[in-house]
């Protein structure tokens, strides 16, 4: 007589593996949305120059002529104080990167330059404004 009750069963429970895959998927989806180098969507002017600088602060001007310091909307009258607050204390030669939509009139760009120049005159610093561009196609 043969005993059929001593069979070896090979089974694996894959529910914990699917939980792990879903957790990893959620993790990567959340972290990929947090990384946003261009917080304000703009069509930058095109250029062939490839000047790179360490940016300390980013100022945006969108197609509606709204100013943003970092991701905070700022009225043009308070631009200088927000730029001063955004630059780390002790840095006398910060690079303020201006990311302006290509449809924005030059006067709005000059407003940012004037705010940085006024900050330089008031504090004796040497902050610079760099205009961000996209590569020419």
Identify the notable features of this structure and list them briefly.
alpha/beta, 5-stranded mixed beta sheet, 7 strands, elongated, 3 helices, about 140 residues, two-stranded parallel ribbon
Describe this structure in words.
The chain is an alpha/beta fold and 137 residues long. The protein has a domain at 46-135. Helices cover 34% and strands 18% of the residues. The chain is built from three helices and seven strands. It has helices spanning 15-34, 79-86, 106-123; strands spanning 46-47, 57-61, 67-69, 72-74, 95-100, 128-131, 134-135. The strands form two sheets. Strands 4-3-2-5-6 form a five-stranded mixed sheet, covered by helices on one side. Strands 1-7 form a two-stranded parallel sheet. Strand 5 (95-100), helix 3 and strand 6 (128-131) form a beta-alpha-beta unit. It is elongated, with a radius of gyration of 26 Å. It starts with 14 loop residues before the first helix and ends with a strand. The relative contact order is 0.18. The mean pLDDT is 80.
Distance between the first and last residues' Cα:
83 Å
Radius of gyration: 26 Å
Low-confidence parts:
none
Q: Identify the strand order in the major beta sheet.
A: 4-3-2-5-6
Q: How many β-strands, per DSSP?
A: 7
The helix content, as a percent range, equals: 25-40%
Structural class: alpha/beta
What proportion of the residues form beta strands (DSSP E)?
15-25%
Shape category: elongated
Q: Sketch the topology as an H/E string, one letter per element.
A: HEEEEHEHEE
